[in-house]
Amino acid sequence: MENRVEKAVELFENGYNCSQAVFCAFSDKFGIEDETALKLSSGFGGGFGRLREVCGAFSGCTLLIGLATDTDLSDASKAKKDVYEKVREIKEEFEKRNGGSFICRELLNMTGPSESHVPEERTEHYKKTRPCAEIVRQAAMIMDEYIK
Q1: I need a labelling partner for 66 at 20 to 30 A (CA). Which of 28, 32, 38, 100 fits?
Q2: pTM higher than the cut 0.70
């Protein structure tokens, strides 16, 4: 396994959101610079802007699947079919490794969206009570396997 998994965890631990961490750890393989990758994936963290919907780490995977799936874009219907198939495969694996869900609030044992758009600080308490770093690790491992 390459350093990409550790890069994803390090990015997350350094304050980037879960989507940014996963997407940026692999984006160079597709000719995307880190700054661009971080900007593209920034809104997906916290389950879409802390709404606690689809997990940001899974969203990062979804962005990468679009880049990594060999599709003929001249046939939009087939291209979508190919990507959607891979997204569903990755979702199944993601759920297996993360307690049966890909929904942020379920992964965090919450009942709804965060009341605030302001991200929480990565304190020791945050790190001890949130599974996010491990979810980022698992998402990056899945993508490392997929992209190879």
Answers
A1: 100
A2: yes
